[in-house]
Amino acid sequence: MSKRKLVCVIGLGHFGWELAVALAKTCEVLAIDRRQSTVDEIGDKVHRALAMDVGDEEALASVIPEHIDEAIVSMGENLESSILCTLYLKRLKVPVIRVKAFSDDHAVVLQQVGADEVIFPERETARRLAARIINPNLLDFVPLGGDYQVMEVRMPTAFAGRTLAELNLRARYNVFVISILRPEPEGMHFLPGPDVVLLPQDVLVMIGRETDLRQIQDKVEEPPAHQKNDA
Questions:
Q1: How far is Cα 47 from Cα 87, in angstroms, rounded to an integer?
Q2: Residue 61 to residue 71: CA distance in whole angstroms
Q3: What confidence tens digit (pLDDT) does each residue in 99-123 have?
Q4: Any idea where the domains of the chain sit in the sequence?
Q5: Which residues sit opposite 154 in a β-bridge?
Q6: Which pLDDT tens digit goes with each residue over 151-179?
């Protein structure tokens, strides 16, 4: 059995709280906040919760485990505290440090003092919502390097009843189906084989360039395969 990842979440505002609770489902989570009342509330939802001032480098060093895997800093709008905390975590040789930023200038400083990843939760949420509003058939997407994305799309009607081999999506659209989501009890089909027959209620999880993936989205409203010579 693999070891559970040990993650420290510092700052338990809305973002930090939700992140800590979500991570606790599969990771060992140390949650830190300066407010004792907040720490008391989250105490039974994470592995360990502490109330402390992370602006005290010695105090922070005393509670960060040597074998920690990652730290996430989400400290409200106290820019100085988030910068100092990031610097201290870097000095403690935390392998991965992710920090919530509030401006581009703040992000630059965070990267300079040691942040491995700068997070803009509001921007990311807004972009994903905008993409779903513009493209109603787009259920979700995850941007990757370059122009590549992982995207969830409702099953194009024209694809129903056909196998992945028949559709030959890799050759025709330069996209790869990595999973098919189906209602329970079937659930998720990860890395489906070429003989899998697609069903009308399926959701396709695909990886590819955005422009290629959009071609699949455009087919969602097309007529079924039997009404056309070719999908």
A1: 25
A2: 13
A3: 999 888 999 999 999 999 998 887 7
A4: 6-121, 128-227
A5: 203
A6: 888 888 888 899 999 999 988 888 888 88
Residue 31 main-chain phi, psi, to 5 deg: -105, 135
Q: Are 215 and 172 in contact (CB under 8 A)?
A: no
**Helix segments in the chain, DSSP class H:** 14-23, 36-42, 57-63, 79-91, 104-113, 121-134, 164-167, 169-173, 210-218
**Closest by alpha carbon to 16, among 101, 76, 70, 74?**
74
In contact, 121 and 15? CB cutoff 8 Å: yes
- Region 188-201 average pLDDT: 87
In angstroms, rounded to a whole number, what is the distance separating the alpha carbons of residues 143 and 147? 8
How far apart (Å, rounded) are the C-alpha atoms in residues 178 and 103? Answer: 35
**Secondary element (H or E) of residue 203:** strand 203-209
Residues written for the chain: 231
Taking alpha carbons only, the member of 161, 193, 170, 198 closest to residue 182 is: 198
Angle formed at CA 70 by CA 66 and CA 72, multiple of 5 degrees: 125
Can you identify the CATH homologous superfamily of domain 128-227?
Regulator of K+ conductance, C-terminal domain (3.30.70.1450)
* CATH node for 6-121: 3.40.50.720
Whole-prediction pTM: 0.63
Q: Are 110 and 135 in contact (CB under 8 A)?
A: no
**Token digits of residue 145:** 């390097």
Tokens representing residue 114 in the block: 């040691």
